[in-house]
Amino acid sequence: MNFLEVEVAKDKSSAWRNLVAIFVIIIAVGGFTIQKIDFQNSSILNKVLQPLQNVGEKIGGDIVVEPPLPVKPQLPLVTGEIPDSSQFSAHSMIVKDVKTGMVLYKKQEYDKWPMASITKLMSVLVILEKHPDWTTSTVVVGEDSLGTHVYQGDVYTLDQLWLAGLVASSNKAILSLVNALDWPIEAFVERMNQKARELGMTETHFTDPTGLDETNVASASDIVILLNEVLKYPKIQEALLTKEQNLYSEERSKSHHMWNTDWLLLGWVEHDFERFYGGKTGFINASGYNFCMRVGNGHLVDVVVLGTDSHEARFTEARDIAKWALTNYQWSE
């Protein structure tokens, strides 16, 4: 037997079988495709696809849904006559709604002006960054000509100096706090300026931590930003709302009483605000009388007045313009 011939015969037979199989597969696939097309046109499939066809021409994929528009707070609307700025002695003024950030009143709000002791608000903000141990004690530094509340060589806790710096606006208390933190004055002031830039205070420049230097300048618009920031810290706000403080010097065996410099807080200048969140004063010859505060009757406003012509006028003018804003603006609830 010639096995080669057998193998050739087998190969020919297999080839025919393969061709027949391919032909059968083509017919089967074609029939399935026809059935599939018929099925797609059937009423059953149409019922299934009908809800999706309402969405759009293309079936499948994610449906594009527009994000909801952010809800913007309704801005207050003025209902009364805006006061003439000439009736106020302040060089600069601003009243700002705390909730919306809307400026309710302004007078030369972008003019740079000596801050005086309002500078201390930035100083204490930077001091908090060091997270001091308030129970530790330190020696008072600074010439006695800088103030009479604390004296060079006296020893107090950092917490006592903190209150002295904000309640009585003691210059030496602030300098002593900075010194206790082993922070060179130049580096500390640089951090003050850096912090101002971080907060967006573009018309502000610091040259010392106390405000005694008239080159510490800022606009009313910038100071209202600073006020809003410091009131976020309970440690600062509690000090600004402390009406009085007693210090006892072991070194001099003498007690010293300090009143808060804010006469509205003490009630020495009358007001009818329902809520008072504290304020800060400032005075040097170059600045005149400065003051900033947060108050409210139902709504809260931040107020800054710079350069009034008398000690009492800074409080009365801040009070009057705040009262006008709270009375003559209408807030949507």
Describe the structure.
This protein has 333 residues and is α+β, with helices and mostly antiparallel strands. The protein has one domain: DD-peptidase/beta-lactamase superfamily (Beta-lactamase). The chain has helices spanning 3-40, 43-53, 119-128, 158-167, 171-180, 185-199, 220-230, 234-240, 263-266, 311-328; strands at residues 77-78, 92-97, 103-107, 113-114, 137-139, 155-157, 217-218, 244-249, 254-259, 275-284, 288-297, 299-308, 329-330. It has a five-stranded antiparallel sheet with strand order 3-2-12-11-10, with helices on both faces. A hairpin with a 4-residue loop joins β8 (244-249) and β9. It is globular. Mean pLDDT is 86; it is low at 1-10 and 31-42.
Helices and strands in order:
Blueprint: H1 3-40, H2 43-53, E1 77-78, E2 92-97, E3 103-107, E4 113-114, H3 119-128, E5 137-139, E6 155-157, H4 158-167, H5 171-180, H6 185-199, E7 217-218, H7 220-230, H8 234-240, E8 244-249, E9 254-259, H9 263-266, E10 275-284, E11 288-297, E12 299-308, H10 311-328, E13 329-330
Antiparallel strand pairs: 1-13, 2-3, 2-12, 4-7, 5-6, 8-9, 10-11, 11-12
Helix pairs in contact: 4-5
